[in-house]
Amino acid sequence: xxxxxxxxALKVILHAxxxxxxxxxxxxxxNLLRDAPDTDLRIVLNAEAVEAALDHAxxxxxxxxxxxxxTLNRIGRENRPPLQVMTSSAIIEIAYMLRAxxxxxxx
Length: 107
Hints:
It comes from Pseudorhodoferax soli. This is Intracellular sulfur oxidation DsrE/DsrF family protein. InterPro entries: DsrEFH-like (IPR027396). By secondary structure, the chain is an alpha/beta fold. It has a single domain (9-106), classed as DsrEFH-like (Hypothetical Protein Ychn, Chain: A, 3-Layer(aba) Sandwich), CATH 3.40.1260.10. Helices cover 43% and strands 20% of the residues. The protein is built from 5 helices and 5 strands; from the N terminus they run αβαβαβαβαβ. The protein has helices spanning 3-6, 19-35, 48-55, 69-75, 90-99, and strands at residues 11-16, 40-45, 65-67, 84-85, 103-106. It has a 5-stranded parallel sheet, sandwiched between helices. Helix 3 (48-55) links the parallel strand 2 (40-45) and strand 3 (65-67). The longest helix is centred in the N-terminal third of the chain and has 17 residues, at 19-35. It is globular and about 45 Å long. It starts with a helix and ends with a strand. The relative contact order is 0.22. The model has no long low-confidence stretch (mean pLDDT 95).
């Protein structure tokens, strides 16, 4: 890989719609940040993963985790800081981020 490409900061979305995917995303995020600490990383949650994140904190990754407001509304739950709530639904936010050059990885 060329040096120019290899040393560009990464912008990565780890998308997790299920509790199992959330677990994988958290593990992958820890590994990614260990090897590329300058990565701009967001774990984006919707569907069943939102409730799992609300119920099971992760000290290292919660501040990098964004939850879907549509899912929060559907399940009737409030957000738990440091989790962050996206402005729009997960699908819209992911589409905007992809248009801005982020890399999408489904966990």
